[in-house]
User: Fold this.
Amino acid sequence: MTMRRRHLLGGAAAALATAFPALALAQGEWPQRPVRLVVPFPPGGGTDATSRLVADRLNIAMGWTMVIDNKPGAGGNIGLDAVAKAAPDGYTIGMGQAANLAINPSLYAKMPFDALKDFTPIASVALQPVVLTVRRDSPFKNLQDFIKAAKARPGTYGIAQAGNGTVGHLAGEMLARRAGIEVLQVPYKGANTALTDLMGGQVDLYFGNTVSVMS
Assistant:
């Protein structure tokens, strides 16, 4: 593991317990000051909740001071760009995920960073399924109810998602193709605002990860 490039946390629950002690040992007395954990989505969503859990556990178990810095926008590109441009000294870490590392490079003609060259992976921390969610008073009681209604009124029903290029966005497109329906994709800057509009009736459904919808 090297400290020469910027550091990145990414996708599936595993090596956190062994990777961080190895990093600390490799750097001697590191960290000597607070570590900034950049979260490329707003507070209240799944990525933010996971990041805060990781930071809290490390602060307690390792005696570190890890500070969350939310930098949302462009499907996570703005936050990870801040990580890519930070001093490569180990004190700026980013929470990467499928959207900003694997999906965005295929969607954007020009990326502000190179996902393969500008970061050094540290540990996988979370693996979360994507779920389709409705309000309690929704007329859709199961997936077939929604598909039937969407076929009858193509492009009418809005599916909220936490930004273009996110996993929720692609999940909506995959559902539409496989079910032979047309849906209205409604992008938000993050899960929190998407869920607020779902509860308020501005959109009909929300595609997001389990952490963002559990409450």
Observations:
- The CA atoms of residues 162 and 190 lie 4 Å apart.
- The first helix runs from residue 16 to 26.
